[in-house]
Design brief:
Blueprint lengths: L1 H16 L6 E8 L17 E4 L1 H4 L8 E9 L11 E9 L7 E5 H7 L7 E7 L1
Parallel strand pairs: 1-5, 2-4
Antiparallel strand pairs: 1-6, 2-5, 3-4, 3-6
């Protein structure tokens, strides 16, 4: 009986330390004018940056948040295999015209994960 309780407690402890996050599916586009930004004005924040939809913006609370963004596939037939990988970006701006799950990446960030000729891609993203 003591072994069963010990095993159960160990399992509970392990599960407590494991954090499982599920990615959100959405789309990504890109933009090319980075300053001024809604978060930092004319202060340069580098090029691995993003603007987010009102759903993620949260009245500016999103400023400075980091997201891991992974290309998962094309949104059209123009570039059938656009994906190159994953990038981590910092939120610096609001994208008022974006759909709820759209992230507008800098051109450099978009190019790191996909062929820019695709223009728009399917992604998975999560806050890091």
């Amino acid at each position: 009986m003591a072994i069963k309780i010990h095993a159960f407690l160990c399992l509970g402890l392990v599960l407590t330390f494991i954090s499982v996050t599920s990615a959100i599916s959405g789309t990504a586009t890109f933009y090319t004018v980075y300053v001024p930004s809604a978060c930092y004005g004319y202060e340069d924040q580098g090029v691995m940056i993003a603007a987010v939809s009102d759903a993620l913006w949260e009245n500016g609370a999103a400023c400075g948040r980091m997201y891991s963004v992974t290309c998962t596939g094309p949104t059209n037939q123009g570039v059938p295999q656009p994906c190159r990988g994953t990038v981590t970006v910092k939120v610096v701006d609001r994208c008022p015209g974006c759909d709820a799950t759209n992230i507008d990446l800098s051109q450099e960030a978009f190019s790191a994960i996909a062929d820019p000729n695709a223009g728009k891609i399917n992604i998975d993203y999560n806050q890091v």
